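Predict the 3D structure for this chain.
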Amino acid sequence: MTDMENIAAFEERIGYVFKDKKLIYEALSHSSYANEIKHGHHSNERLEFLGDSVLSIVVSDHLFKHFSHLPEGDLTKIRASLVCEKALFEFSKQIDLGSFIMLGRGEEMTGGRKRPSIVSDAFEAVIAAIYLDGGMEKAREYVLGFLPKKLDRNTANSLNDYKTRLQEIIQKNPEECVEYALVSEKGPDHDRIFTVEVRLNGAAIGTGEGHTKKQAEQEAAKQALELMGIR
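Done. Predicted structure below.
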């Protein structure tokens, strides 16, 4: 299948046809693929950055308007559960996004199509591409199609967001300060490993690794919660 055939198949899968094909081409291009192709071809990393923000505002707006009975704390927890890597990976399975991502040979051979960090990043990049191509309403329509029909406190508990859980515990003591620090990064660009420490008042209370900083932060928070006896 050629790249354009791949794009056409993906458009049919999501029910949206792009006016500017370059946007969806870039959204589906992992850095390993862009590095192999070169010739000024861009990966989806910049679109992922924008898509993260578009996703957050769409979900926040939806929760604010439709769940006026819930307090800020519950809204924050539900939103976090809907925009975390695990949730986006699950949403991506609904459209088999992993099959359409364009990967470099090395990433293809090491199972990149099923790697949550790669697929969830591409999911955010596609949101950005739709936003740039069709505007906020089209992006909103796309995002809301993935959200569970029933949203309540249990939604947040079903998709673990360890950073939010840790923050809720720490903020009970206003004088406490929690922060995340990148300790190291290693490996080739297509298989980067980040190591992050979560620190309480400057002292490390957990360490995590991941293929993205977000994933590493979640793993660090998870370790901190486990050390506190919270699972």
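The first strand starts at residue 178 and ends at 186.
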